[in-house]
Amino acid sequence: MQEAFATAVERWPRDGVPDDPVAWLVTVARHRAIDRLRRDRILRARVPELAVVDEPAPEEPVPTSVPDERLRLIFACCHPALARPAQTALTLRLLGGLSTTEVAHAFLVPEATMAQRLSRAKAKIRAAQIPFRIPPDDALPERLEAVLDVVYLVFNEGYAASAGDAHVRRSLCAEALRLADVIAELMPDEPEVLGLQALLLAHDARRDARVDHAGALVLLEDQDRSRWNAREADRATRIAAHALRLGPPRRYMLQAAIAVEHLHGPDWERIAALYSHLAALGPDPVVELNRAVAIALAGDVRDGLARIDALAPELARYHYFHAARADLLRRLGSHDEAALAYARALELAGNEAERAFLACRLGTTRSRSAPPARA
């Protein structure tokens, strides 16, 4: 109920007091309670699954500064004996509340491939007798990057759900934000931690404006900025700037800078430059896709399209790849090719809000590519 009151304090001055305030508070509180119960139930169900080796419990509990139970378990699951992708995928499946299908979507691989990876990771844990223990404080830094990846990917699934009717899964967003806040309190001088916190806040500030009242998808340029959360946007801006002052730019720090640029511009040339810095940190086809889109929106549509086409072997199953390609083809007047790309994006998309948006774009593009009717 306290969370419902806090939400009311945040939203009512902006959106207006609802017709039945008591009913509104009860409904929001009920939804929060259901989310909490569901989260706790999943956590209790997953803990036995994590205990894959029969190992005596240590006589004394490991001292740790991590104050949150779920975060302690996430640090425990991100064991450095496993490869980083395996750490992240297994933790998302066991503690992040994501299904195997959703984890596969996060890694851009088929579900069967992800199921095999998860099975191999569990088998390695059993074979190598890797202990599942809460790590001591001095072991936290070597696990931090994987933990940040887990929190980021949980938020991603909440922010743009890979399947289902709703485009946004608020409970996942809220949990990821909560975990990011806990990590930031634990490590207030770690730039990448602050970068992740700023990134999630910047995205979450736009959450309510990303769909209209009917649940339809709204693109950034069409969003009603009065529906953005100004407090979160300001906080994201401050934290992102502070993170960049603490050390050389790294992955989440740069992504936070890009997200903040979206809040205050966007300046597409600057965004393209930030993506170039991000791409220099390591190969990532999704980063290259976003850089190509930024280059196109900065004015060079043909260069952006050429860069996107070069990513086809790696992103052929990624519906955002086909949607971005379709949009640039549409801007260039190639409506027939754009329609084919929209159709492929629609085939691959699993979320109903995104499917409805793509279907609308496909219909509009086909109508422009159709020859005029004879008199």
Provide the structure class. Answer: mainly alpha
Rg estimate, integer Å: 22 Å
List segments where confidence is low: pLDDT < 50 over at least 5 consecutive residues. 52-60
Average pLDDT level: 89
Number of strands: 0
- Ends: how far apart? 66 Å
Order of helices and strands: HHHHHHHHHHHHHHHHHH
Helical residue percent band? 55-70%
User: Quick one: overall form?
Assistant: globular
* Strand composition percent: under 5%
Characterize the largest beta sheet: strand count, sense, and whether it forms a barrel. Answer: none
What is the overall number of helices? 18
Describe this structure in words.
It is a single chain. The chain has 375 residues and is mostly helical. Among the domains are: 47 residues, no CATH class; 54 residues. The protein is built from 18 helices and no strands. α4 packs across α7, α11 packs antiparallel against α12 and α12 packs antiparallel against α13. It is globular, with a radius of gyration of 22 Å.
